[in-house]
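Attaching the record inline, Q. Sequence:
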Amino acid sequence: MRAQTTRTLSFFLVGSVLALALLVSDRYLPGVPLQPKQLPEAVVTIGDSTLAGEGGGNYEPGTNGENGNWCHRSPAAPVHQLDLPSTVTRINLACSGAKTDLLRAEPVPGHAEGSQIKQLAEVARQYRVTDVIVQIGANDDPGFINVVNKCVEAWARQAPGGCSEQMRGQWTERLERMQPKVAAALADIRAAMDDAGYLPQSYSLVVQSYASPVGPDIHPELQNLSGCPFLTKDLRWIQQTGVPQLSEALHEVARGAGARFLDLSRSAAGHHACSGDPQTAEGEWFTRLTVDWESLQDERRAGHAMQESYHANAAGHAALGDCLSEFLRNEEQHAVCLDDGQGGLEAVPGHVAAERTHP
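Structure, as predicted:
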């Protein structure tokens, strides 16, 4: 009887120690179910255009219109700009134009690549994923690119209220409709990682928001089809209202999902499209109105001839990648990408950034 009691106590103590180890450590524990294997480390990006590398050029074969795949993954994408050990694999699953349904476990059929989360699940079994970086939502109910197009139309018509007058009445509602869709996508990411054997604390889930590609600081001679055909009031609304409110909506969802959050809404200040050298565009991190004239002559590609417009260029992706890299190195739950005073960006803790805005 005493021997049985001793064995029971021993099992209890071993179980307790093992449970404590699971709570305080994210390291692989041999023989423990649902722990990811000791595999080469990887960082994964999923979502839409900024993480895909849209605007960076030199797109990966198979993602530049082949078989209807317009993901436009570029070697200039942020994941390839990260300061990581050479042993860490960089995996870009993001796709330009993606909506939240493309991240879901069961996306709407018809896309050339299918579910990004199913791809993530496969990667999570082949690698030891340390960070999953997500950017999604702008192409859903907000329809940010459509908003930009409406603003261009308002410039062409010289509409008295501009596109911003119309957006003020519906932008908040659009963001509210978007939020549960982003939340569901993040929940599917968590579920995929759980199924692959990861504990929530064994990897970092990072949500990043969007930068404003344009602002009222543009050169007047470029405020037309030469680069940025927008009314000044609309430029001001995009930079000061539309993008910041989109960012805050995404921050709210990230908090609910227990994800870290990187705010890009102020990252382009001083580097918007049409704000640099009028001739060379030096100093700009975002493309001006861009037309691929060769594609415009091809019926199959004509609809994507202006796809790069108002997306980050290679310099912009590099700056955003540097800020993301700094954020991944620290333990802040929330940071804002701001001018570092040396021509680049730094990841400023959220509470510090708020003090700078409202001292």
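Residues 1-33 have pLDDT under 50 and may be disordered. The chain has ten helices and seven strands.

More tomorrow.
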